[in-house]
């Protein structure tokens, strides 16, 4: 049995979520609400002591880290539709892109996202409420990031992250002008993992991601959004999240 704990179809949570739909695997989605800080609740920290999503429960075995989960699904379900090539050179090319998104692209986009989204949420809390929330975060680096978001990231940091975003966009656009998919002629985890970060940038970063400036990147985003698995993922995730039970009623569902 597969159960995926995630924030839903966005950022790192989107990677294994879309991979599960692309592979046609039956699973139970468990959407963790970041606005309620559910990932820092004791019931979730029993699943992942780091208090981070996504986390995959496969018959009691917990797999964490978004890209690792995607690779795990390839290994655990070799008969399902493949998202990893079979040729070693092609696999290496795919992994260059998944490594890059994890170590570079994701981080610069994440900082801007924290400034725009997490910062206002953190500043809406009283000092007492904020400190209570922060002390429940098990990773010291995440505690520091919450404090930075509440105070507002320095302009120099935001400027540098925007520079990195532009570098990332240029790299994606160049590659997609040469090939339909990032790792070659086949749709792979390279596309899934980068799409998780790039999807929606034509709205949030429309000055640099748009049909005029980045036609190949925009077309690639549209191609993935039009895939049956992506359409199903977004539709079902929207319904699941809308119908989810409040935390107080869900705690009994969490593993002991």
Automatic annotation (TrEMBL):
Q: Sorted alphabetically, which SUPFAM superfamilies does this protein's record hold?
A: GST C-terminal domain-like, Thioredoxin-like
- GST N-terminal domain: residues covered: 1-81
A Pfam family it matches? GST_C
* PANTHER family for this protein: GLUTATHIONE S-TRANSFERASE GSTA, GLUTATHIONE S-TRANSFERASE-RELATED
Q: Which domain of life is it from?
A: Bacteria
What protein name does the entry list?
Glutathione S-transferase family protein
* GST C-terminal domain sequence ranges: 87-247
Query: What InterPro entries does the entry give?
Result: Glutathione-S-Trfase_C-like (IPR010987), Glutathione-S-Trfase_C_sf (IPR036282), Glutathione_S-Trfase (IPR040079), Glutathione_S-Trfase_N (IPR004045), GST_C (IPR004046), Thioredoxin-like_sf (IPR036249)
Q: Which family does it belong to?
A: Belongs to the GST superfamily.
Taxonomic placement? Bacteria, Pseudomonadati, Pseudomonadota, Alphaproteobacteria, Sphingomonadales
Gene3D superfamilies, A to Z: 1.20.1050.10, Glutaredoxin (3.40.30.10)
């Amino acid at each position: 049995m597969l159960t995926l704990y995630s924030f839903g179809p966005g950022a790192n949570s989107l990677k294994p979520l879309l991979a599960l739909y692309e592979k046609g695997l039956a699973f139970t989605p468990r959407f963790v609400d970041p606005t309620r800080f559910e990932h820092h609740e004791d019931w979730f920290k029993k699943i992942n002591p780091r208090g981070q999503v996504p986390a995959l429960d496969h018959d009691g075995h917990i797999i964490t880290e978004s890209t690792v989960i995607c690779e795990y699904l390839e290994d655990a379900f070799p008969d399902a539709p493949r998202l990893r090539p079979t040729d070693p050179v092609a696999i290496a090319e795919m992994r260059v892109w998944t490594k890059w998104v994890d170590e570079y692209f994701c981080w610069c986009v994440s900082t801007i996202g924290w400034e725009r989204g997490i910062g206002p949420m953190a500043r809406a809390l009283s000092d007492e409420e904020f400190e209570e929330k922060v002390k429940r975060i098990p990773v010291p680096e995440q505690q520091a990031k919450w404090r930075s978001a509440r105070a507002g990231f320095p302009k120099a940091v935001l400027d540098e992250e925007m520079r990195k975003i532009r570098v990332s966009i240029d790299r994606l656009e160049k590659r997609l002008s040469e090939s339909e998919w990032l790792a070659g002629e086949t749709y792979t985890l390279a596309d899934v993992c980068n799409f998780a970060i790039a999807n929606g940038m034509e709205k949030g970063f429309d000055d640099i991601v748009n049909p005029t400036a980045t036609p190949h990147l925009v077309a690639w985003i549209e191609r993935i959004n039009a895939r049956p698995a992506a359409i199903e993922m977004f539709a079902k995730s929207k319904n699941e999240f809308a119908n989810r039970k409040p935390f107080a009623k869900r705690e009994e569902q969490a593993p002991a």
